[in-house]
Amino acid sequence: MFKKILIANRGEIAVRIIRTCKLMGIKTVSIFSEADKEAPHVNMADEAYLVGGPRVNESYLKIDKIIEIAKTTGTEAIHPGYGLLSENSSFARECEKVGIVFIGPKSDVIAKMGSKIEARETIKKAGVPVVPGITHPLTDAAEALTISNGIGYPIMLKASSGGGGIGMQVVNTPKELQHAFVSNSKRAENYFGDGAMYIEKVIQSPRHIEIQILADQKGNTVYLWERECSIQRRHQKIIEEAPSTFLDTETRKKMGETAVKAAKSIGYSNAGTIEFLVDNNKNFYFLEMNTRLQVEHPVTEEITGFDIVEQQIKISAGEVLSFQQSDVKCNGHAIEVRIYAEDPKTFFPSPGKITKFEIPEGENVRHELAISEHSTVSPYYDPMIAKLIVKGENRAVAISELEQALKSYKVEGIKTNISLLLKVVSSQPFIEGDTATNFIEKHIYSLSDTK
Ligand code: MV4
């Protein structure tokens, strides 16, 4: 086992990873920016090093400096967390080159899944259903027009390097296509340096259901059930739960086995997530693969009892999985909500100093955070300040626990989305499990007095 791991991240996820390292008796090295000198991930680690300025490209994205710190501290492995460098294949490749273990899959697998078009093509070849559409990059609007006529409108235009809904648009008529193609391609070029586009059929009011997998370096691969993340706002997930209310035993098994097949076909190792869109008839289609630990991993940990970070570290150290598919059981129901420092009326980020912070304690309540009373939420980073995870013996119990917890969650000094979350979780459609993906647009604006 590794003696020392560097965590190339910040905030709640860095704290989360350090916690598991401590449990495993592994020494930790943190890195930080000038804005994070007082941050919990800095205080908690055995060693911590300043990388640079507050902006991520001056600090948390500085590949050379991070590798330099890893080398001089005698670090054996780097955990990238999520976001930042976690799906950067060049970073993983640099680690491989200098003999530091990147805790994740191999760099070529990251690169392959990072291109949405290549991922679709590869996964389709493995016999996994993908959303109907094309599997080659489009570079001009004329070709897009011909293809869309073949698929039939409405079509979904997406950027190959896209994420977070950037470069993605529903197009209803051929007349709109030219403009939509050019503007989204340009946008993707600006954001990702890659304007390649592809086209899919539109799946109407789909569910977003993702399968967590774990694969060791020998190819033993299991799925840890699913998470349903259908409640999103502007492609930002806000509520995730496990298991899904929508799947029956048979569909769940089919999706899990399909995810394992997809992972094996690309030589995947470590923790990963296969995202599917699921339509009303329970047909499921591969959407994309996330080659990292995900924000919402705690709900899976709560229902299965596995520590996913511990599993990642063991896999990276070359251990084989110590359990099989039949050992993976689901217990109860877990729900996670993401608490954002944002104005509930305008949805703009609301950085600043926290003057009061009181959080509900309880046996079935878990917090993932890196803030406290008197800490400051920096404008330089993601405005997600905390995750609240509750567990219950069933969904109804979990919802009631969540309502109680949200009602007694006190944050002052900054604005948060807690009121919006409370509205969602106490709404009739949510309680009934009617969480198809247009949820926020369909239900919340009508429920909201903060429109
Ligand atoms: C789609 C879709 C319908 N049809 N693709 C992909 C990224 C995610 N943030 C939104 N995505 C969607 N892709 C096709 N072909 C609908 C969505 C979508 C969505 C999907 C899952 C959960 C919530 C969603 C909210 C808006 C749009």
Strand and helix map with partners:
Layout: E1 4-7, H1 11-23, E2 27-33, H2 40-44, E3 47-52, H3 63-72, E4 77-79, H4 89-98, E5 101-102, H5 107-114, H6 116-125, H7 141-151, E6 155-159, E7 169-171, H8 174-192, E8 197-201, E9 207-215, E10 221-233, E11 236-242, H9 249-265, E12 270-278, E13 284-290, H10 297-304, H11 308-316, E14 333-340, E15 352-353, E16 356-358, E17 365-369, E18 376-377, E19 384-392, H12 395-407, E20 410-412, H13 418-425, H14 428-431, H15 439-447
Parallel strand pairs: 1-2, 1-4, 2-3, 4-5
Antiparallel strand pairs: 6-7, 6-8, 9-10, 9-12, 10-11, 11-14, 12-13, 14-19, 15-18, 16-20, 17-19
Helix pairs in contact: 4-5, 7-8, 12-13
This protein binds ligand MV4.
Ligand MV4 is lined by residues 131, 156, 165, 200-203, 206, 208, 230, 232, 235, 277, 437.
